[in-house]
Amino acid sequence: MRIRVINPNTTAAMTASIGAAARAAASGDTLIEAVQPSFGPPSIEGHHDEVWAAAGVAEQVRLGEAGGADAHVIACFGDPGLHAARELARGPVIGIAEAAFHLASLVATGFSVVTTLTRTCVIAEHLVLQYGFERRCRGIHGTDIPVLELDDPRSGAFERILDSAERALAQDRSGAIVLGCAGMADLCASLQQRLGVPVIDGVAAAVKLAESLVSLGLATSKRGDYAAPLPKTYAGWAQAMSPR
Amino acid sequence: MRIRVINPNTTAAMTASIGAAARAAASGDTLIEAVQPSFGPPSIEGHHDEVWAAAGVAEQVRLGEAGGADAHVIACFGDPGLHAARELARGPVIGIAEAAFHLASLVATGFSVVTTLTRTCVIAEHLVLQYGFERRCRGIHGTDIPVLELDDPRSGAFERILDSAERALAQDRSGAIVLGCAGMADLCASLQQRLGVPVIDGVAAAVKLAESLVSLGLATSKRGDYAAPLPKTYAGWAQAMSPR
Amino acid sequence: MRIRVINPNTTAAMTASIGAAARAAASGDTLIEAVQPSFGPPSIEGHHDEVWAAAGVAEQVRLGEAGGADAHVIACFGDPGLHAARELARGPVIGIAEAAFHLASLVATGFSVVTTLTRTCVIAEHLVLQYGFERRCRGIHGTDIPVLELDDPRSGAFERILDSAERALAQDRSGAIVLGCAGMADLCASLQQRLGVPVIDGVAAAVKLAESLVSLGLATSKRGDYAAPLPKTYAGWAQAMSPR
Amino acid sequence: MRIRVINPNTTAAMTASIGAAARAAASGDTLIEAVQPSFGPPSIEGHHDEVWAAAGVAEQVRLGEAGGADAHVIACFGDPGLHAARELARGPVIGIAEAAFHLASLVATGFSVVTTLTRTCVIAEHLVLQYGFERRCRGIHGTDIPVLELDDPRSGAFERILDSAERALAQDRSGAIVLGCAGMADLCASLQQRLGVPVIDGVAAAVKLAESLVSLGLATSKRGDYAAPLPKTYAGWAQAMSPR
Amino acid sequence: MRIRVINPNTTAAMTASIGAAARAAASGDTLIEAVQPSFGPPSIEGHHDEVWAAAGVAEQVRLGEAGGADAHVIACFGDPGLHAARELARGPVIGIAEAAFHLASLVATGFSVVTTLTRTCVIAEHLVLQYGFERRCRGIHGTDIPVLELDDPRSGAFERILDSAERALAQDRSGAIVLGCAGMADLCASLQQRLGVPVIDGVAAAVKLAESLVSLGLATSKRGDYAAPLPKTYAGWAQAMSPR
Amino acid sequence: MRIRVINPNTTAAMTASIGAAARAAASGDTLIEAVQPSFGPPSIEGHHDEVWAAAGVAEQVRLGEAGGADAHVIACFGDPGLHAARELARGPVIGIAEAAFHLASLVATGFSVVTTLTRTCVIAEHLVLQYGFERRCRGIHGTDIPVLELDDPRSGAFERILDSAERALAQDRSGAIVLGCAGMADLCASLQQRLGVPVIDGVAAAVKLAESLVSLGLATSKRGDYAAPLPKTYAGWAQAMSPR
User: Could you tell me which CATH number the domain at E97-202 has?
Assistant: First the structure.
């Protein structure tokens, strides 16, 4: 099985670490292709970054379909371009936010999200509502660590996330923590050990859900809302992206 | 990995067919134990049947824990005893209704449920609400086929379910069908082929979700709501079920 | 009128005090039968206890029906077995949680629940949602007093509940307090006097609602969702509970 | 116990029949005072009628308080002036719409409302939402019988309501019928007999709820939202209504 | 264009200042008529005041219709009598609470309301729910400044509102402030300057919405729910208000 | 005042007709700039088209800000790129879907949407939920007229929309119609005349809301969720779009 894991931003180091997290979660016979768009923001920290990231995801799903990917994962916690990707793809497409929300709901009656910038909490809130987790998700907490500093040991990211998670568990009366950024995948095991509750990384969660769907023969429904894009010729530099 | 699949009713033929469906979905290195309670209803077709089935599930999870099961699946569409089972189990516990709802949400913007008796639709409605799928689930349709006639070719079950599903897709503007009874697992592939949309059987869905969680090291949260039952001595014939 | 008040746990002292609370609330011509199951947990402090209590409630409603009860009350704040009991009963069946929520909604724009163990708050939350009180119920507060210590003067139960209620009124901007355990019935009048707001005990509330329904000729609807259980033979020790 | 039942319109014949329905429901030791405002609309068939009816209800609750009423019932299905009445009253105040919704929820998993003019359905919808019954109330159906023709045998009111209720039960998959007008109280018993499901008349329901609350010592909370109106002098002809 | 701005209370000084706020917001060719009822409360600080204010609004809309008003504004934050006014009016009728909620939703993902008496917060909560802003409105905060002291420099109203708004922005994670009383219109510009976020005064907002609707040829729908009141003769002093 | 009206697709004829509709709605002293992106889909009929349209909107808002626009309107019914545009803009940004929903809510208790392709109904549903109109919007109806045929007299578009609207009003019990495509602006007046209820075109609605906000000094909140995009360098051809 080939799963194309798309890092919607253009930072190669992050693509590499997302790929590693995906491979660590994947079954032995799953091939993970970790890719990134040819254009767009180096990190996704707001709605404007997300608009361009969504276009980049569409670019990469189109290539994935051409290359025979069995499934796609969108590895940014805002799930940018998810619906468009599902129109393009024959197989399943999984966003890491939805993946994490779904799995967290299976191990706890309520969960809290710990994310990077407070200004992006509203993006998670909108997803929580659209996906139907507004009663399961008991809190969304910004740590105000910039995405590209998550890997920097000097940023103190681990301790700040740990601290935010501990407060979230107590204050929200939650039973699990969802990590609100693909860049936090590395920290997942250590956080789970320290917190003593399930900690869900969306990258790993999405890989398992994609594998599950493919192995069950379940693909994106092409009836109605996710039917293939209607063929038309796009203008300007987007012409190469025209649906056919 | 050992997954204990509990048929909450006491009909051995149904336990066997559920076991077969689970094994068909499971990965090569997963061992499926298909079991049923030592007591209770032969089929679950209402709230009263469900109360006893929930107790039977608790009996079987307790045995599963003693026997070292890595995860449990509750193979009745009402997910009887789910919360109690999560208190008892260290690993994940998945109900087939929730499993089907979660996977259906990943392949379609909306789904419809086709189930057996109309009188049990309210059970599914209550689960849909509790789990947060009230906007994703666009309809729940009873066919009024008794559970134990699903296997009987003379019941015309397949055609009636197919017909109900086709009407549901059109009327609810849905993109996927969820089968509302563990006894429908056999029909899943044929229905999917005929309908041309994803058809989700909860038994298979739950097995894959259980495997996913176990392989990610995600177990039921023991903080708070699903902590182990408090030790106390139960009275009467339930004494053997006393939490210790 | 004969109302069968079922204490779903097996602690006789608690059955007696629930019976006393029910009699204090009942009209002169109402006969209260306070009973408990022949099996199950001595107190209900989690989902596992509740599963067995629900079965015990079914046992007792069956006996109540045979004995000609006009109505049933389920005297545990999780309303265990409520839907099953309604299938079994011809007359009304009232849970004390729902009874308290309904009456509280008639005397205040919002109420707070003060209960025993924090781990059981999620049970109340699920009921609040299922019954439609999620906007009326402004908070659910655990005091972490074990159920069987409520009567013990050394537990300081009264002061702890009073303190929790006072904080709830202020913090939740509530106008009334709902007592979240049948074992708190004794404390109701004193709490109301001290707090200066309506304090609702579900046992008394349920008795009055049962009397009201019976006197109006309103019984559980037998059309559809609460129709009598389908006749079938249960296996094992549950055989005696088989619906006929 | 003295319960003041206020017909919010000014049609004396309707006040008399509401009084009769209330007395039929009341306990032996309850005194029913059926009254109507000194001003306002002869029937309430829209929001404009309702504004004046609400003022009339306030007039009558003020008189009831002066006269020592233990509780008030507002006998129009829009519950006009309910919140204001609760500010004025020391004892409980019950609207017939809320009363009917509460009792219907105790005997069925879902109910349908059958009312008079279709244009008033939106009033009931707003109440259903405010009170939290939006999942329990499965449909609101106008019959377009004018309120003051309900009593007229030539209007065919009974048959039209029966027909509408039968269709509602089937279409909404409901288990009970709520009568959406105080003027339908007479028809309640016959409808229940014909339909074979619980039929709830709000006048009777409200009387029993008022009796229940009074006998339990539960009065309108005076903390916060329903505190007595602040003393001030009203201008013009409303001066006599100034809170003191 | 003639817009009739109704101050629902009977304090002439407040009518004058509301008129001034409305004129400051209005376009050059809009004529603002600021009026008040001939009867009723001098300030609206609870449900009882509101009942009489709603009747006063009906009186004034009736006169406005007779006088050829193109639109009406109801200048009290509880939007008293809004639905009745829409039945009476041919043109649009806008309440200042709804106006402020609508405009706030266009400039921020979430807003907080700062109002006068805490006891009136529940009125705003009911409107927020009825209008559908329950996810946009992140908090409603009482300052407990009496309405008629808003203008009194000795009341310290400005500082108290400023302080409450600052805390609301931080605590609710809001991006805008809605002023919860027509009497706060004067303070709007200064508050916006001090707070650095949009501050919405409902009077100005309602005037612009009324102008917008009139200029687009959009009037209150007369199909169904807001059809003109049915002609009937009201009793007593309300007779002059009888719909014809 | 200068309002930049962005047609998110790249069909110049549609930009022109949207510009005409905007100018017809605008006040005398408002300058309408009707523009379209330099790239992207010629019509927006699904999620994939929308992703590229959102990027095009961002391009045009960036140019509008550089050019001193006082406000922006996004003239496609899916409101593509709305949140990103609000990050970029200092003044207000209004989507035509939200504009239409807001104004429709002021003239009717419920409205129905009539749109082009059925497959895009889900886009409107997601907006309805995100904006909070799920109770006000009583139905969304596809006519399956392709966007670019709306202007073609041979498509019979007017009659099909009229027919769909008439059925929607009856079936949904709605009081107003919202046109679900910017390309329907031309038809608005005729439809309103034929239907006898308010018909809301989002382009006109958005222009009036933008004018209202600008004239009140209300701009997009820059506190928190809509703060300016963080400066960073985008990769590839998106480099020119990098926030600074």
Answer: 3.40.50.12500
